[in-house]
Amino acid sequence: MAVYRRGYHRYRGRITGHWTRFMVLPRFAWRRLFRQRLVLLLMVVALIWPILCAVFIYLTNHAELLRGLPRDFQNFIEVNGNFFIVFMRVQAIFAIFLAALTGPGLIAPDLANNALPLYFSRPLTRSDYILARLLVLFGLLARITLIPGLLLFGLQTGMAGGWWFWANWTLGLGMVLGLSLWVLVVSMVALAGSAYVRWRIVAGAVVLAFFFILSGASVMINEIFRVTWAHAINPSWTIDRLWCAMLGVEPPEGPGIAACAVTMGVTILLLLLVLRRKLRPVEVVS
């Protein structure tokens, strides 16, 4: 319609709220991911270990089932910080594989099809887009890490009684903070890999390589130079060191908690900068 005719008028309908518009991306992304059989299969497999941990909790709270076993073994099976550390380590591995499977499909297709201008032409900022994609992975990975961990903690509290909760509530808090930090790091790595590599298979390989190559490189440097500070470049070791501090478990030999916290913070900041650099509404090609 020609502008000079003044036949146009402003939209006066109901305007949805910011969070309503924001949740459109996660809602449709979750719906698409849960339709993939491989994703569902991996999530089911990842829940096997929490089920075994629940059986372990049941046995530890029923002494009559342990009669006849050696006394040392009965003292060994106890729900404490070491129990939750082992649970978190196993689920952390599943979180890496699940992020490598689902993360590359969140940003890479938008970049490959030049869809970012379509997103940013709506009332959606670049920060909203990153946060929405991050929420997709965080909500997905929380189903195999945070939620099972809280259920195990609640199961132990219900069987052992309120006294156990007041004596060990720091374990639950440390587990929630530790797993949340790990899920955040894994999600950021998956999104950064998806933003830099537009092929989904290659992007998934980049996510796996980020963790496993850095792990091997840290071990190699430590062996060559006879040091332990190289553990700080290994995200898996760094988060494990932070978990030990949060749950009151004896830490492994290596960098202290301050160095690990700084390394983890710098890693998250660098990944965020990578995302903001790659996610632009326009691209200038010379």
Structure description:
The protein is mainly α and 286 residues long. It has one domain. The chain is built from 14 helices and no strands. It has helices at residues 18-22, 24-33, 37-46, 48-60, 71-76, 81-102, 104-112, 116-120, 126-142, 146-160, 162-196, 200-225, 235-247, 257-278. Helix 11 (162-196) runs antiparallel to helix 13 (235-247). The radius of gyration is 23 Å and the shape is globular.
Principal-axis shape: globular
Number of H/I helices: 14
* Total count of domains: 1
Please identify the structural class as seen in this structure: mainly alpha
Tell me the fraction of residues in β-strands, as a range. Answer: under 5%
**Mean pLDDT metric:** 88
Stretches with pLDDT under 50, minimum 5 residues: none
How are helices and strands ordered from N to C? Answer: HHHHHHHHHHHHHH
Q: Rounded to an integer, what's the Rg over CA atoms?
A: 23 Å
What is the strand tally?
0
Termini separation: 35 Å
User: What portion of residues is helical?
Assistant: over 70%
Largest sheet, in brief, is: none
List keywords for this structure.
14 helices; 286 residues; globular; mainly alpha
Topology:
Layout: H1 18-22, H2 24-33, H3 37-46, H4 48-60, H5 71-76, H6 81-102, H7 104-112, H8 116-120, H9 126-142, H10 146-160, H11 162-196, H12 200-225, H13 235-247, H14 257-278
Helix pairs in contact: 2-9, 3-6, 4-10, 6-11, 6-12, 6-13, 7-11, 7-12, 9-11, 10-11, 11-12, 11-13, 11-14, 13-14
